[in-house]
Amino acid sequence: MIKSVKRVGPPLLLLAPSLILVGIFVYGLIAVNFGTSTTDIHTAAQTTGQEPSSNVWFKNYFDLLGNEAFQHSLKNLALYTLLFLGGTLLMGFVWAWLLERPIRGESIFRSIYLFPMAVSFIASGVVWRWLLNSGQDQSATGLNRLFQMVGLDFLQNNWWNNVDYGITAIAIPAIWQLSGYVMALFLAGFRGIPEELREAARMDGTTTWQLYRHVLFPQLSPVALSALIIIGHMSLKSFDLIMSISKPANYQTKVPAIDMYIYKSSFDYANAAAIGSILLVIVAVVVVPYLIRTNRKEK
Amino acid sequence: MATLSTRAAPPKETAGQPGRSNGGRRGKGFSLARTLRYAALLFFLLIVLIPVYVLLVTSFKGPGDASPERAWNLPSNWTLDNWRTAWDALAPSIWRTLQMVVPSAILAAVLGSLNGFVLARWTFRGANLVFTLILFGMFIPYQAVIIPLNELVLDLSLPSGIPTLILLHVVFGIPITTLIFRNYYQTIPHELIEAARIDGAGLLRTYASVILPLSLPSFVVVLIWQFTSAWNDFLFAVFFSSSQNGPVTLALNNLANGALLQNYGVSMAGALFASLPTLLVYIVLGKYFIGGLMSGSVKS
Q1: How far, CA to CA in Å, does A266 sit from each of B13, B39, B154?
Q2: Of A86, A92, B135, B175, which residue is least crowded by CB atoms under 10 Å?
Q3: Is the pLDDT of residue A290 over 60?
Q4: Which of B73, B136, B147, B280 to mutate to test the interface with A (most CBs of A within 10 A)?
């Protein structure tokens, strides 16, 4: 007993500050947040204790999920995630594939493809708001004007101002910003494949396509999975880019993270907390199996 | 994955074929495939640089130049007015952001280093579970904690603005810094630690004399990561500070979406100002920056 305390004690003591902080700020607050989401604290007055609040169980959740506006947010989130994931994975893979074999100027291409990653969504949102301006023909600026200049007028559209799929326009800057990151992941994946594997395949007289299909792609699937999880969870939490390109009050581009901000701003703590919990569940469904799998593989 | 870089691994020597094997670089001469690759790479390069062109060009344009017809043209009169206005508007918040980013990055790095050491090299039963529980903090949507966090900040009567944001960036930085350090420390041979143990060194002694001296590379990676992510944060900024006491992302957003007459030139000059520090980090420490990005991916 004493012996095991002596063995486990010191490392736990060293971890203690972090464990306490993470325990309180992550797990503790998630629990409290869930508690708030089951109350009827919908106005500022109640939060200052002037009116009693009572437990309404899952009413807020049912109301939200039954609400057409919130369903629109969820649909937007799904569309955005689909495009953002597909776009970054495709671009990132193509760039890595183009750079995989030695080529002069590789580091220049790599650096420029990667640099948007260093910039905040708020800063890039400033320029993308202009590029995705919905003005057309006479008043066209941004990409619409560019399309006119190169004779592709038919490509002009009102971008994020479309109610049904405007959110997909917001995915364009997101793809611009993170494709380079996915490229770096894939490039590391390509470089991590032992040269012997390629040599052996070449000796066997495989074609280039067969080499990719049977030797290289399978080796890249863990990288693809990492990219999927990272981009996926970023996408589900998307907030900054939408705030800076569109406005929070815009119905066209709203997602749950934006709804949460709006409810919080109007002191509707119960609904804001409920949306937080819904987002948490969505992210956890994606991430927890991955964490468990990674943890198990290490043992 | 902490120390991965995208540099090519040194060519491995195969029997009877010394030096670089024939990995695709075939003679000089003309090659259609290579020309096509260059063409594709250049095409994508131009696409990626479009927003940069717009930012730069517009930031030097006077108010009259912003008419739609001339949207893509170079400025007819180059002016620095936008840059002056943007600097005046953003300078105080840039200074505040520095005061926020530096201490929070250092604190999160120190905690991550201690955690990483214990979880990689001084483990105990259940260490993997503890690690996974910490790691989960990296993935949670912060929206799921903001409402009670707000109350907690009020209850602790933390000063709004930078001090609160420092605390939050430290706390929510712990998962990723722990991950990076743990991955890195796993590459340190067990024997080194065993040797120290046999010499009678305890936990802290081993950390200070064996681990810490080897930690510089991952400290660099972690500090870059924390610097950029705290610098670029907007979510905490918008919930826990105001434009009077908040960081530069908030100030920039207010500048660009302000109620005042929309001035794209000023907004774009401001966006460039707000991005300069992280771009500088990227340019100067590019190699490590990539390392930082890699460490952000969970070990596969």
Answers
A1: 67, 52, 18
A2: A86
A3: yes
A4: B147
SS (H, E, C) B74-130: CCCCCCCHHHHHHHHHHHHHHHHHHHHHHHHHHHHHHHHHHHHHHHHHCCCCCHHHH
Identify all chain A residues contacting B139, using CB atoms and an 8 Å cutoff. Answer: 233, 283-284, 287, 291
Query: What are A99's two structure tokens?
Result: 């750079």
Q: How confident is the model at residue A138 (pLDDT cuts 50, 70, 90)?
A: confident
Please name which of B236, B274, B282 lies closest in space to residue B256, comparing C-alpha atoms: B274
Please tell me the distance from the alpha carbon of residue B256 to that of residue A121, in angstroms, as a whole number.
13
Of B93, B30, B297, residue with least CA distance to B183:
B297
CA dist A259 and A256 (Å) reads 5
Structure tokens at A257: 């993270």
A182, A93 in Cβ contact below 8 A?
A: yes
Is the CB of A22 less than 8 angstroms away from the CB of B137? yes
Q: In which band, very low, low, confident or very high, does the pLDDT at B296 lie, cut at 50, 70 and 90?
A: low
Cα separation values, B290 from A170, A182, B4, B7, Å: 26, 11, 8, 10
Q: How high is the pLDDT of residue B260? A: 56
Listed by number, the residues of chain A in 110-129 with a beta carbon closer than 8 Å to a beta carbon of chain B are 110-129
In angstroms, what separates the C-alpha of B16 from chain A's closest C-alpha?
Answer: 13
ipTM above 0.95, yes or no: no
Out of B171, B271, B278, the one facing A126 most closely (by C-beta) is: B271
Euclidean distance between CA atoms A38 and A107, whole angstroms? 53
The residue of chain B nearest to residue A260, with distances taken between CA atoms, is B143
Q: pLDDT tens digits, residue range A121-137?
A: 999 999 999 999 888 87
pTM (2 d.p.)? 0.89
Best of A13, A26, A98, A271 to mutate (most B CBs within 10 Å, chain B)? A26
Write the single-letter amino acid at B115.
Answer: N
Residues of B with Cβ-Cβ distance to A12 under 8 angstroms: 124
| Residue of chain A with shortest Cα separation from B271 | A123
Q: What is the pLDDT of residue A299?
A: 58
Chain A 146-175, residues with CB within 8 Å of chain B CB atoms: 146, 149, 173
State whether residue A20 sits within 8 Å of chain B by CB. no
B201: amino acid identity, one letter? A
**B102/B114 Cα distance (integer angstroms):** 19
Q: What is the dihedral of CA B186, B187, B192, B194, to 10 degrees?
A: 30
CA B56 remoteness from chain centre: 23
